[in-house]
């Protein structure tokens, strides 16, 4: 099931004629988005953020959810109620091996967020994502287990940092499950993935959690290794 949510942020928009093309695993058309290359009978994950135009004003619309491959053909799709907005980013991946791929409408380019915009900080009870953005839509994925999401604003509800300081602190355990994902993990582990999208600029940050070599303490530490998704081609 795909959730559809709207950010209460007004943005100017322009009309356009859709010219859509496919990414390696995500395909956009005028009436649906499809994810291919899944393990037969597996589960696809769809993540999308768009600025949708209505009467000259664009609002930020978020779609996300799990799509089971019920017929075992390695592909899933989600029907759209309108043509994809020009300013939109669509990500898809197999839940078992969450390596996101992306597609955007022709005429729009993926904007990568700064590679240092997001950091992972180990805490005793629950690890924290530290995000240097004014607003952030966050997804956390653990291979084969689930995906969890949340939206946050600097100084707003759920921000662990103090006041409006240009930084958002996110408790991993506070994220909300997509579908049947269950309770969000409070602690990161190697192999997890994080996706962060700035709903204002649609800048995209993706990274995988990796273990670093043991230091003087003899213990491995976890860090984020940013992965820049390549521009899709027609």
Features:
single chain, 234 residues, mainly beta, 6-stranded antiparallel beta sheet, 5-stranded antiparallel beta sheet, 17 strands, 0% helix, 47% strand, globular
Notes on the structure:
With 234 residues, the protein is an all-beta fold. Helices cover 0% and strands 47% of the residues. It has no helices and 17 strands. It has strands at residues 2-12, 26-28, 32-36, 43-54, 57-68, 75-79, 88-94, 97-103, 118-121, 128-131, 135-142, 146-153, 168-171, 176-177, 193-197, 204-211, 222-226. The strands form four sheets. The protein has a six-stranded antiparallel β-sheet with strand order 14-12-11-15-16-17, with no helix packed on it. Strands 1-5-4-7-8 form a five-stranded antiparallel β-sheet, with no helix packed on it. Strand 11 and strand 12 (146-153) form a beta hairpin. Mean pLDDT is 84; it is low at 8-24.
* Anisotropy-based shape: globular
**Beta-strand fraction estimate:** over 45%
The major pleated sheet works out as:
6 strands, antiparallel
**Average pLDDT figure:** 84
User: What gyration radius follows from the Cα positions, in whole Å?
Assistant: 18 Å
End-to-end span in angstroms?
29 Å
Give, in order, the helices and strands: EEEEEEEEEEEEEEEEE
Strand order of the largest sheet: 14-12-11-15-16-17
Q: Share of helix among residues?
A: under 10%
Structural class: mainly beta
The number of helical runs is 0
The residue ranges in which pLDDT falls below 50 over 5 or more consecutive positions are 8-24
Would you report the number of β strands? 17
């Amino acid at each position: 099931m795909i959730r559809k949510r709207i950010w209460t942020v007004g943005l100017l928009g322009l009309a356009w004629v859709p010219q859509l093309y496919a990414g390696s695993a995500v395909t956009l058309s005028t009436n649906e988005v499809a994810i291919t290359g899944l393990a037969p009978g597996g589960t696809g994950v769809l993540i999308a953020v768009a600025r949708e135009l209505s009467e000259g004003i664009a609002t930020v619309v978020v779609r996300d959810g799990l799509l089971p491959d019920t017929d075992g053909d390695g592909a899933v799709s989600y029907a759209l109620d309108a043509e994809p907005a020009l300013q939109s980013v669509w990500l898809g991946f197999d839940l078992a091996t969450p390596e996101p791929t992306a597609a955007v409408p022709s005429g729009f380019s993926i904007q990568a967020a700064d590679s240092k915009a997001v950091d992972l900080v180990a805490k005793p009870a629950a690890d924290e994502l530290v995000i240097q953005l004014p607003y952030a839509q966050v997804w956390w994925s653990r291979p084969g287990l689930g995906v969890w999401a949340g939206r946050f604003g600097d100084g707003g509800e759920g921000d662990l940092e103090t006041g409006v300081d240009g930084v958002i602190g996110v408790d991993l355990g506070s994220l909300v499950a997509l579908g049947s994902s269950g309770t969000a993990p409070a602690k990161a582990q190697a192999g997890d993935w994080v996706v962060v999208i700035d709903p204002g600029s649609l800048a995209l940050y993706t990274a995988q959690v990796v273990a670093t070599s043991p230091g003087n303490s003899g213990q491995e530490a976890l860090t984020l290794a940013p992965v820049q998704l390549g521009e899709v081609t027609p």
